[in-house]
Amino acid sequence: MTDIKLEHINFSVDNKQILKDITTTFHSGKITALIGPSGAGKTTLLKLINGLRSPDSGNIYIGEKEIQSFDLIKLKQQIGMALQSAPMIQGTVYDNLNLPRSLWGDTLDKQKAMELLDQVNLETIALTTDVKSLSGGQRQRLSIARTLVNQPEVLLLDEITSSLDPRSVKEVEALIRKICDQFGVTIIWITHDVEQAKRITDDYCMLKDGQFVVSGHSSELETTEHPVLKAFLKGEIE
Predict the structure, then answer these.
(1) Does residue 181 sit within a domain?
(2) Within a 13 Å sphere around the CA of 47, how many CA atoms are in the beta-carbon half?
(3) Looking at the domain assignment, is residue 19 inside a domain?
(4) For residues 22 and 207, what is the distance between their CA atoms, to the nearest angstrom?
(5) CA nearest 150: which of 61, 89, 81, 94?
(6) pLDDT tens digits along 45-93
């Protein structure tokens, strides 16, 4: 079980402060929705947790270890990240599943690859299938399977269902819920779909202007009286 703890995180780009004194804990075995208006700093926060950027000040802990103490390979094994666009390399389903291993000079066992497809309900798709032939929903599930190759303890999801049809959205939501419940991973999910946050996540944190405004259990989104969150839920803050 791996909690993610942030302590007084600050981050700036070109003298513009993007994140301001962020302190919170994302708990293992739970899906936390990261919500807020565009430009609030949500994606930047995921990049800091994933080690793609470094904070100007403050500390990030993955479990009990400070993020700076991980070597790059170990950190990438610990944390999986899936994006809205579900980027794929040219080639087959297996080529894409094998990518996380090939980057470090290793090879994914084909039996393990088939097990991963089964986990994301793509068991009818052959490893030799060209990824160009996959639907958007299939590509996103393959992207999620790829994040599971190294059995990460943390999953970071950035708007992964925003371009999918309603049926694919439900399939991906069910898949993420299953992964969380089955493996006890820590999942942070950026979403602009508040109904999705209510439906699938356990907790929420709201970012606005680079600061955490409010957080709590996702069930509270229905009845919140917090003025800023209430305005955001009504679409008055974009």
Answers:
(1) yes
(2) 11
(3) no
(4) 10
(5) 81
(6) 999 999 989 999 999 999 999 998 988 778 888 899 988 888 899 999 9
5: in domain:
no
| One-character DSSP codes across the chain | ---EEEEEEEEEETTEEEEEEEEEEEPTT-EEEEE-STTSSHHHHHHHHTTSS--SEEEEEETTEEGGGS-HHHHHHHEEEEETT----SSBHHHHHHHHHHTTT----HHHHHHHHHHTT-TTS-TT-BGGGS-HHHHHHHHHHHHTTT--SEEEEESTTTTS-HHHHHHHHHHHHHHHHHH--EEEEE-S-HHHHHHH-SEEEEEETTEEEEEEEGGGGGT---HHHHHHHTTS--
The residue type at 231? A
Question: Residue 91 belongs to what domain range?
Answer: 30-42+79-233
Number of domains in the chain: 1
The domain that holds 138 is classified in CATH as 3.40.50.300
Mean pLDDT across the stretch 123-130?
95
Average pLDDT over residues 138-160: 92
